[in-house]
Design brief:
alpha+beta, OB fold (Dihydrolipoamide Acetyltransferase, E2P), Rossmann fold, 5 domains, five-stranded parallel β-sheet, about 25% strand
């Protein structure tokens, strides 16, 4: 809204002068020889001067053509209200007039010098009447202007002025509303303020009671992004201490992404290469468009609602999509998605777009990956690292058992060489029995630990052996490919195509021929 010209819609109200109909409220600059044309409201035509030397103003016959008409006014008489800046207020008896003329003609006639007390308004009555008029007409407006004289009082309330090249207006924002201003207001900043207009009765000043403030000139999406980011950050949803650790060896991984995008194939490829034992449960959803935010949130909630004993209940979730424009990725900036991810009891790895694409979902997720492929690498360990870790555990266990045996042997040797063996036979027998018991306990403990470690290692070796893609080839199977792509069905083959067959000890090239049958 332009600060220089403020137009009011028609309304009926009870003013300090009695029932009226407001048709225009227009702040306009005074010009030499008259008043500048009003931009809004019905046309007003000057008539003959009244007793004060001011042109009376009357409304013309009703016409659908409401244009811009100048209102001429002669200089005011001494000790009377100056016409500028002019405020156009309700007309009485079909007349539209400036505030100065309206005050002088409150009873539709010039006020005589001997007016009775009932015809005279107090300042309070006047300001209250104007305040009621302004508040009802401008109860919810957006005003853009330059921020000036910004002050944050000790009480927490904020006082400032909005101005442009031709006008200015004071504004007030109460403390409980300032928490929703997600930037630091600065002198000279261009802002947009939402609120309602009112009159501060103590000074008779027109002001705006501000409800919200936004920076002007920023895109709506960027503004919404920053506001939601600061809102969720203030709630603590980005805090590191609320993020869940990722399981070191997830058995089941849930994936929330498009069922047709390249991102899914990238994730599956990396998971198969790094950790084949992991099971994958896919919940395909749209990742862009109007339905995407709610679909993403519902998918995250659906995984969390699965029973913990279910085979499909994931130990970890990957939520994301491949690259795209800001608009394509916007679903992951929606509050419904952010709150679903933040509220998940299952650890979530976000993987949206590329390294440079940072969404709100990335901030609330337990772990952020730059791409879907990297999300898969973060989610599972490399099987070669697992095998190396198992070997380390085996070596440590063997060293530990050997150390315990050596320690016991040293104690036995010390006992044998001590004076105890030079005492009477009774003490010797006592120590021999004690030693036999210790050796027996140590042997049983060592055997138990060794058997347990051997069983654990055998189970792990069996799992790794079962996951080895070379095993089927050693049993006589071959792995056919065509132009580097796996052949999954005979329907995909055509006569004359050359196939590459891989065996466990080499490969050969063959040609497809029609089946004689």
């Amino acid at each position: 809204m332009d600060l220089q010209n403020i137009a009011m819609r028609p309304l009926s109200f009870q003013s300090v002068f009695g029932p009226c109909t407001a048709v225009a409220f227009c702040v306009s600059q005074q010009t030499r020889g008259g008043i500048e044309a009003q931009r809004y409201g019905p046309p007003c035509i000057p008539a003959s001067p009244d007793k004060w030397g001011r042109s009376a103003v009357t409304s013309p016959p009703t016409s659908p053509d409401v244009g811009r008409h100048a209102i001429e006014a002669s200089p005011p008489p001494p000790n009377r209200i100056s016409p500028g800046p002019i405020v156009f207020v309700p007309h009485i008896g079909g007349e539209c007039c400036p505030l100065s003329a309206f005050l002088l003609r409150a009873s539709c006639h010039p006020m005589p010098s001997s007016a009775s007390d009932s015809d005279v308004l107090s300042v309070t009555e006047l300001t209250r009447g104007l305040s009621a008029l302004v508040e009802e007409a401008y109860d919810d407006v957006w005003v853009e202007g330059e921020l000036s004289d910004f002050t944050r009082a000790a009480s927490g309330h904020c006082y400032f002025t909005l101005k442009d090249d031709d006008a200015q207006i004071r504004c007030v924002m109460w403390k409980h509303l300032t928490q929703y201003v997600y930037f630091e207001p600065e002198e000279g900043m261009q802002v947009r303020v939402n609120g309602h207009a009112s009159v501060y009765e103590r000074r008779g000043d027109l002001q705006i009671m501000a409800q919200a403030m936004r920076q002007a000139g920023k895109g709506a999406q960027q503004q919404a992004y920053e506001e939601l980011k600061q809102k969720l950050q203030a709630e603590g949803l980005f805090d590191a201490d609320r993020k869940q650790p990722l399981p070191p060896f997830p058995e089941t991984i849930g994936i929330v992404t498009s069922g047709e995008g390249a991102a899914l194939q990238d994730i599956l490829s990396v998971l198969k290469r790094r950790f084949p034992p992991a099971e994958v449960v896919l919940c395909p959803v749209p990742v862009q468009g109007l339905d995407a935010p709610q679909a993403l949130a519902d998918a995250v909630a659906a995984f969390n609602d699965l029973d913990d004993t279910s085979d499909q209940h994931p130990d970890l979730m990957i939520v994301g999509r491949g690259g795209g424009s800001t608009e394509d990725l916007w679903a992951f900036n929606e509050e419904v998605v952010a709150r679903a991810v933040a509220g998940s009891t299952i650890p979530v790895v976000s993987a949206v777009g590329h390294e440079s694409d940072v969404t709100i979902a990335d901030f609330v997720a337990d772990e952020r990956a730059a791409t879907p492929s990297m999300a898969a690498e973060v989610a599972v360990p490399d099987r070669r690292d697992v095998a190396a870790h198992i070997r380390q555990l085996h070596d440590r266990l063997r060293e530990h058992v050997s150390g315990r045996i050596d320690t016991a042997r040293q104690r036995v040797d010390a006992l044998v060489s001590s004076r105890a063996f030079h005492t009477p036979i009774r003490r010797l027998e006592h120590h021999r029995q004690h030693l036999d018991a210790m050796v027996d306990r140590l042997t049983r403990t060592g055997n138990r630990l060794t058997d347990s470690a051997r069983s654990h290692l055998e189970r792990l070796a069996d799992r790794l052996q079962a996951a080895d893609p070379e095993q089927p080839l050693r049993r006589g199977y071959a792995y056919p490919t065509h132009d580097g792509n796996p052949v999954e069905s005979v329907d995909a083959l055509a006569s004359g195509e050359r196939l590459r067959l891989r065996f466990h000890d080499g490969h050969c090239v063959t040609e497809v021929v029609p089946d004689a049958d």
